Amino acid sequence: MQLDGIRIAYYRGKRYTKNKGVVTLRVLLVALNAKYVQTNLALRYLREDIKNEFPETVLKEATINEPVSRIAGEIFEIKADVIGFSCYIWNLSEIIRIIRHLRLVLPQVRFVLGGPEVAFEAQELMMRNPEIDVVVQGEGERTFLELLRTWQAGKDPQAVHGVVWRCQDKVISNPERIKLMDMTQLPNPYALEEKLDDRLVYVETTRGCPFSCQYCLSSAGSGVRFLEPERFRQIFIELLSYGAKTIKFVDRTFNVRKDHAFSILDIVREEVEHAHNPQGIRIHCEMAGQLFDEEWLDYLKRYPQGLLQLEIGVQSTYRPTLEIISRSQDFDAWQKYVLEIQHTTKIPLHLDLIAGLPRENWDNFRNSFNDVYKVQPNMLQLGFLKVLKGSGLRQRAQEYGLVYQPDPPYIILKTKDLSHLELLQLQRMEILLDKYYNSGRFLRSLQRVISLFPSAFDFYDSLAQFWNAQNWFGLPWQGKALFERFWLFLEYFRKINPKYFEEEKWESLRDALRFDYYYWERPNAVPDYLLPGAKMSSGNIEGGSRAWDEVKLGSLEELKSLASEKFAQDSKCKLPQIESMDRRQWSRCTALAYFTTPVLEDFCWSEELEHAMKGNKVTIENNPVWYLFVYQKDMVWALPINAKCIIHNS
Ligand code: B12
Ligand code: SF4
What pLDDT is stored for residue 39 in this prediction? Predict the structure, then answer.
């Protein structure tokens, strides 16, 4: 639990909270984040908005994984008069449990709920939970301040727009607040100094979205409002001075207006350049693919490498589905920009898909998946439809046969077009997609094995069936164990499809997996199943760690200079200090391995470049080939070394 820096004053057990001589309400704002690294932006706005009039406002952040009773105890000890909770799909159940617990020991306190998860169906929520005093609907800044002023004046909130409140036994819904906040009038949410170096920090430069996707809450609002870029600069400078490294723009469609987006990105670039410690700063934006054009491409090509990361929602490529969900986009038309961004910039790309949308059956989803997979984004996020309160799809759920969990997060269970069984299978495939594709650890082996299947989707389908039959789901497999499970699947697949696996193909698969194994981290030993096949290992040359022994006998200096030469060929590489490594450093930072097949048809110099530089082919002259792996912090190089050279050198 974190408690921010505002003074809580006690005098011999009694509280005194004064503002210009008047005792003001003490306000506690509570956020339950999904994970520790996350932060709550909404409450930082609210705190700054009210703190002039209610100076003893305190912000507490916890996570949904902490015990509810402990959080409740800590809240109790703050002795607040008003406690506001920020409610999202991931935390409402826990918040209700906390309030039910606290109501028994804090009968006088006012509990206020705000946030997207209570913005709709608030009256029903209050009827079901008599412990809640008020729900604030929609944007909170102005409404919450007015509510507090009303209570401070000892009145009921009948004149406050945008609240649902309890008046004795009745729940009253006041008129909604029509006029939305002008963004330039919003306070700086990060005005109070805090330590943010290990947190995920959210910033906002627009509110609203021009689109109206029917599964999304942003479709419920209208129009887009913009923060003045220079105002953003002040906030951003402050964030950097608090050590923030990972900063996510919560703007629904960051590229909604090109000039605004360029100004904000320019400011980010300029301020990061001046930052005290610019290393590792990364910003993340969600953009609409259909708004890209040549000017954007040009801009992104010139943007500093490593600073920006992009997320683009595809969701589906099936037209009838896109029509129903009001997402007028043509993936075929704009994927060229995505491919271009991948090939010509170092910007990591995340593409999103949603399973369980109306009209999309197994085959249609298979196509959507394969369309997106072909682009080879750095991350393919396969999400499942959440039928959100307040969304268009929730209102039309019956029409499309959408059956979803009755409790948050309202995940789709079945539709007219996808059965529950199919959705369960897609969930399993998503787990494996994450472990194998999104981890980036199995790039070469996946490429090889998928080529044996009709499509990527079919591969993940088979893999998930195999895992399920082995009862492997539910166990926390990681690292080496994932390699082993991959191999077991390959062996099984070979058994049932021997025609695909003549010896050469099999060795090439093994090589690819072994290459991925080396690429992942420096192995002390390579498991037996990854060593080159019996035929090869009985010959003169052996693979795996044994190869290293052979070369160690030769001239290390020669190998070093060979490696340096290789590095020097690529001007984009920041060279590791190969030449000056002593024998210990060298053996800690390098590994040498032998491959019997051309492992890398498209070779890239570094892991970081791996995805982005797909087009940057390096021809490997001689096969079989030795690779020298050089391991540096966050970076692994694989240098093809001509086998003849090595044998000669040793
Ligand atoms: C950051 C974020 C996350 C983070 C979570 C951060 C955290 N703190 O834990 C992560 C990435 C984990 C996440 C995940 C998900 N998210 Co999300 N996420 C957001 C995002 C982009 C920003 C939220 C934000 O800070 N907004 C800016 C603030 C200022 O706006 P606000 O939150 O609306 O707050 C205002 C009012 O609501 C109100 N208010 C808020 N709290 C309070 C409290 C009080 C007392 C008062 C008076 C007022 C008030 O006042 C605020 C200021 O005006 C929003 C989209 C968006 N741009 O808002 C989606 C959003 C919140 N996410 C959403 C969803 C659906 C998800 C996922 C389920 C998506 C998925 N994977 O399928 C997951 C669930 C995670 C889980 N573990 O289950 C939905 C939420 C629907 C809901 N009913 O809660 C949103 C709205 C996206 C959408 N367009 O539909 N998300
Ligand atoms: S999904 Fe994205 S583009 Fe569509 S309405 Fe929501 S925020 Fe806007």
Answer: 98
pLDDT of residue 611: 38
Is CATH 3.90.1150.10 the classification given to domain 183-418? no
* Cα 211 to averaged position of ligand 2 atoms, centre (Å): 6
Q: What is the per-residue pLDDT for 543?
A: 36
Q: Choose one of 88, 246, 387, 430 to mutate for the ligand 1 pocket test, by most ligand atoms within 8 angstroms of C-beta.
A: 88
Is 608 in contact with 638 (CB distance < 8 Å)?
no
Q: What pLDDT shows up at residue 221?
A: 60
Measured from the Cα of 189, ligand 1's closest atom is: 29
How far is ligand 2, taken at its centre, from the CA of residue 39, in Å?
A: 22
- Which stretches of the chain score pLDDT less than 70? 1-21, 219-222, 533-559, 562-563, 565-577, 598, 600-624, 641-650
Q: What is the pLDDT of residue 553?
A: 34
* CA-based end-to-end distance of the chain: 59
Distance, CA of 182 to chain centre: 29
Residues lining ligand 2, Cβ inside 6 A: 209, 211-213, 216, 218-219, 252-253, 288, 313
Residue type, 271: E
- Distance in angstroms (rounded) separating the CA atoms of residues 396 and 622: 61
**Predicted pLDDT of residue 326:** 95
Give the phi and the psi of residue 95 in degrees, each rounded to 5. Answer: -65, -40
CATH 3.40.50.280 spans which residues of the chain? 2-173
Hey, which CATH number is domain 2-173, 3.40.50.280, 3.40.50.300, 3.90.420.10, 3.40.50.2300?
3.40.50.280
Check residue 22 and give its pLDDT.
Answer: 75
403 Cβ below 6 A of ligand 1: no
Report the C-alpha gap between 45 and 188 in whole angstroms.
Answer: 7
Which among 37, 214, 250, 393 is the best mutation to test ligand 1's pocket, defined by most ligand atoms within 8 Å of the CB? 250
Cite the residue boundaries of each domain of the chain with CATH code 3.80.30.20: 183-418
C-alpha 47 to ligand 2 mean position (Å)? 27
